[in-house]
Specification:
With about 325 residues, the protein is an alpha/beta fold. It contains eleven helices and ten strands.
Length: about 325
């Protein structure tokens, strides 16, 4: 394909996106398959505030948590493909779920149309502020001295996989306590009802600021800007331990391509603003830029394969 042909195709795409018209005058529904206050919810609300100004139409957030984000994601997959329903979902329901469950009510690849990657988020291993374990080394030492006595909570698939990865890497026995949502799990970690939990920093920030949670390690390759004094698991000796949450915007399959391009271009314009990036960074989210429906589609396929490998390596069998 010549450069001229590529340029022509690009201009056609831009033109189609710019001229796309959403039907009627109803608000756009943005489904969030997690509870309010979670990292995905925060990202969705930050985006919706700017996006509704950009598209000149109200966006209504609809939180539909449950079943590791499957309920809300399935509702979006089964919605009318008219451009008036979007879903903010990601690593749990799209990338991890196919390897965690033998059967899903939706096909992550064929029932949803990728619009744009929005953000990634580093996870941290949290304990209650009153926990006697002041470091990851202390925690692992305690777990080894008391096999099966400690437990870890999870409010999504990412937290569950992160916990199992730690069990495998450290050779410890800790009991998994699954929760319906992350905020409830974090509150129980803060109250020492459960011993620890992997969660994105965004969702845990209020409890950290209140002095109820402490982070022992982060799952990113480099230290988090929000937790500069907290070591990575790689620094702690767990070579290759790297895990992130991510969230993107999807539409129901068969949504017209010009509408997908329209949303993608508006999100890209918003993401290019320095003030918008700063808003995301303040809550521990790394904003994605330059995402398109095509590049996001490839990203999703790679993430499904990556999570499949991680889940198998963690010894998790599909339910």
């Amino acid at each position: 394909m010549t450069n001229r042909t590529v340029l022509a195709a690009f201009l056609i795409t831009v033109s189609c996106g710019a001229s796309a018209q959403l039907p009627g005058d109803r608000p756009v529904r943005l489904i969030v398959p997690f509870a309010a206050g979670t990292g995905t919810d925060v990202a969705a609300r930050l985006l919706a505030t700017s996006l509704q100004e950009s598209i000149k139409r109200s966006i209504v957030i609809e939180n539909r948590p449950g079943a590791l984000a499957i309920i809300g994601t399935d509702a979006a997959a089964k919605a009318a493909p008219d451009g008036l329903t979007l879903v903010a979902t990601g690593s749990t329901a799209i990338a991890a779920a196919p390897s965690l469950f033998k059967k899903l009510p939706y096909d992550p690849v064929n029932d949803l149309a990728p619009v744009s990657l929005v953000a990634t988020a580093t996870l941290a291993l949290f304990v209650g502020n009153d926990s006697p374990n002041n470091s990851l080394k202390d925690l692992i030492s305690t777990a080894k001295s008391q096999p099966g006595k400690l437990n870890y909570a999870s409010g999504n698939a990412t937290g569950a996989v992160a916990g199992e990865m730690l069990k495998q890497a450290a050779g410890i026995e800790i009991f998994h306590v699954p929760y319906k949502n992350a905020p409830q799990a974090l509150n129980d970690v803060a109250g020492n009802t459960v011993n620890m939990m992997f969660n994105d920093i965004t969702g845990a920030t209020p409890l950290m600021k209140a002095g109820k949670l402490r982070a022992l390690a982060v799952t990113s390759r480099a230290r988090s800007k929000l937790l500069p004094d907290t070591p990575t698991l790689i620094e702690a000796g767990f070579t290759g331990y790297e895990l992130y949450n991510w969230v993107g915007i999807f539409a129901p399959a068969k949504t017209p391509p010009d509408i997908l391009a329209y949303y993608s271009q508006e999100i890209a314009r918003i993401a290019s603003r320095p003030d918008f990036r700063e808003r995301f960074e303040r809550v521990g989210l790394d904003l994605a830029t330059g995402s398109t429906p095509a590049s996001f589609t490839e990203f999703v396929k790679k993430e499904i394969a990556l999570w499949s490998r991680q889940i198998k390596a963690a010894g998790i069998l599909p339910e």
